[in-house]
């Protein structure tokens, strides 16, 4: 869910300038008030347009157009499949985006992925960047199996280690196969090799 991606960005010192729902998007150059967005979406069950009236001066709501037209350093598509098109990718590249990380299952179309790769930016595919949900399920299973209960901080530390490992594996695999910086290739090959090794270990092949 995008709101938790925004929380993490702020925790690391970043500034979120735009976010959207299915009706439109908001822009707040002073930085999105993530607590207010959570209140609107999770407590009030409202729409993102409600943010402007509650936030006041400096916040804008845009019903038409695309959130990907907003200039940014990092873009995080976190909603639905194929939400970020080749046209959107071209707009992001024109506006100087440096990195795109998928926070959903295949939110970028193949045309968008090709544009990002051709543009030489850092592009993290969902199979790697969006692995946190599956990883957390595995951590929950580990707790259940050991009849243990971890604190939020313990779980987050374990998840952070898992995600660092995924990043390092993708980067190292891309380097090994002659495509440094290509996280798409690195994630695909690293995932395939890991599954193949697990099958061999079980005597399947």
Note down, in words, how this protein is organized:
β4 (74-75), α4 and β5 (99-101) form a beta-alpha-beta unit. The protein is built from nine helices and six strands; from the N terminus they run αββααββαβαβαααα. Helices cover 52% and strands 9% of the residues. It is mostly helical. Among the domains are: 1-65, NAD(P)-binding Rossmann-like Domain (Rossmann fold); 129-201. A three-stranded antiparallel beta sheet has the order 1-2-3. The protein has a three-stranded parallel beta sheet with strand order 4-5-6.
Number of helices: 9
Largest sheet: 3 strands, antiparallel
Mean pLDDT figure = 95
Which oligomeric form is depicted? single chain
- Uncertain segments: none
Provide key terms for this protein.
205 residues, mainly alpha, 3-stranded antiparallel sheet, 3-stranded parallel sheet, 6 strands
Topology:
Blueprint: H1 2-11, E1 18-20, E2 25-28, H2 34-43, H3 50-55, E3 59-62, E4 74-75, H4 86-94, E5 99-101, H5 110-118, E6 122-124, H6 126-129, H7 132-146, H8 152-176, H9 183-201
Parallel strand pairs: 4-5, 5-6
Antiparallel strand pairs: 1-2, 2-3
Short overview:
With 205 residues, the protein is mostly helical. It contains nine helices and six strands; from the N terminus they run αββααββαβαβαααα.
């Amino acid at each position: 869910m995008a709101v938790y991606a925004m929380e993490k960005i702020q925790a690391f010192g970043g500034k979120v300038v735009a976010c959207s729902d299915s009706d439109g998007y908001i822009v707040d150059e002073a930085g999105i008030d993530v607590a207010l967005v959570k209140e609107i979406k999770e407590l009030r069950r409202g729409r993102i347009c409600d943010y402007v009236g509650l936030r006041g001066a400096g916040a804008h709501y845009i019903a038409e157009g695309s959130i990907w037209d907003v200039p940014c350093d990092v873009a995080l598509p976190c909603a639905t499949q194929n939400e970020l098109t080749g046209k959107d990718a071209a707009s992001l590249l024109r506006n100087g985006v440096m990195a795109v990380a998928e926070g959903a299952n295949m939110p970028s179309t193949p045309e968008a992925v090709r544009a990002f790769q051709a543009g030489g930016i850092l592009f993290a595919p969902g199979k790697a960047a969006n692995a946190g949900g599956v990883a957390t399920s595995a951590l929950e299973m580990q707790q259940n199996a050991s009849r243990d209960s971890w604190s939020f901080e313990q779980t987050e530390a374990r998840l952070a280690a898992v995600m660092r490992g995924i990043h390092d594996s993708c980067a190292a695999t891309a380097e090994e196969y002659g495509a440094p910086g290509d996280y798409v290739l690195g994630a695909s090959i690293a995932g395939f090799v890991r599954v193949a090794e697990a099958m061999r270990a079980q005597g399947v092949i």
